[in-house]
Design goal:
Organism: Strongylocentrotus purpuratus
Keywords: Repeat
Number of strands: 13
Shape: globular
Structural class: alpha+beta
GO cellular component, one term: membrane
Radius of gyration: 22 Å
GO molecular function, one term: netrin receptor activity
Number of domains: 3
Strand order of the largest sheet: 9-13-12-11-10
Protein name: COR domain-containing protein
Oligomer: single chain
Helix content: 25-40%
Length: about 270
């Protein structure tokens, strides 16, 4: 399939930018730093800079989600110049380490990730110590790619170790720590008690005609959490191959990904 820009001429200064990336081997920059890099090539318009970044993003050479019309997004100021670096950074917090390789300070957080599929904010901070200034944007990118989504918060006693994203609840006086579901790491199964809460039900099936990947269902999980969050609804419970949510005050939906050979979602 042909892209709209195929066959079109591009400015020489864009090619100079591409050569500079290859020479400098820089993983990421702020938008202002990118402006400084391109100024010697004669690129003075921010509009052209954003257009160029979008172009190279479409080619897969950079990762940039700022956009020409986006003036508020946290991602506007982060330009990923080495997409492989971004993949490696993501892998650092969702790849389970061998117990012998885990830092004892956060060994329990690694166990939580391995056994429950829950990524704690303090583990992210520990692993990403080299670029904590970019942490918030990187977490937002992981959320955008549907690799993680916010899980119900964990309330800790104030004396316990807390992270940069901790807050103190005025109601309980306890520290609230951010946590994230990692759909690809979920291992716990939906309990019979949860299923029994549905007193009467109507089942229907979405047939994907022989092809349904785990990744697609994982994206459905994160979108369900996001959708309920936008509606200020009840927290969504995620399990291995199951999504449980209250659509409204009386309707409880349970989505199940049936065995791979069936390529079907039961609702």
């Amino acid at each position: 399939m042909a892209e709209p820009y195929m066959g079109e001429e591009i400015p020489l200064r864009w090619l100079l930018f591409e050569e500079a990336l290859a020479a400098d081997k820089i993983n990421y920059m702020t938008l202002d730093q990118t402006k400084e890099l391109t100024q010697p090539f004669g690129m003075e318009s921010e509009g052209e800079l954003l257009t160029m970044l979008t172009f190279y993003h479409d080619l897969g050479n950079v990762v940039y989600y700022g956009g020409i019309e986006d003036h508020q997004s946290l991602l506007r100021d982060m330009v990923i110049l080495n997409p492989q670096w971004l993949i490696d950074v993501f892998k650092q917090v969702i790849t389970i380490l061998d117990p012998a390789e885990r830092d004892g300070i956060v060994s329990d957080a690694w166990t939580t990730l391995e056994e429950d599929g829950i990524l704690e904010d303090r583990l992210i901070q520990h692993v990403w110590q080299g670029f904590l200034e970019q942490k918030e944007a990187l977490v937002k990118l992981m959320t955008k790619f549907d690799l993680i989504c916010e899980a119900p918060v964990e309330r800790l006693q104030q004396g316990q170790q807390s992270g940069l994203d901790d807050e103190v609840s005025n109601a309980t006086g306890k520290v609230v720590q951010k946590r994230y579901y990692v759909p690809s790491r979920l291992t716990s199964h939906c309990s019979p008690e949860e299923i029994a809460q549905i007193e009467s039900s109507t089942d229907f099936y979405v047939d994907f005609r022989g092809f349904l990947t785990d990744g697609l269902f994982h994206r459905l999980m994160t979108r369900a959490v996001r959708w309920m969050g936008e509606r200020n609804g009840e927290p969504v419970n995620l399990y291995h191959r199951h999504i449980s949510l209250m659509v409204d005050g009386v309707h409880h939906a349970l989505l199940e990904m049936l065995p791979p050979r069936e390529a079907t979602i039961k609702v």
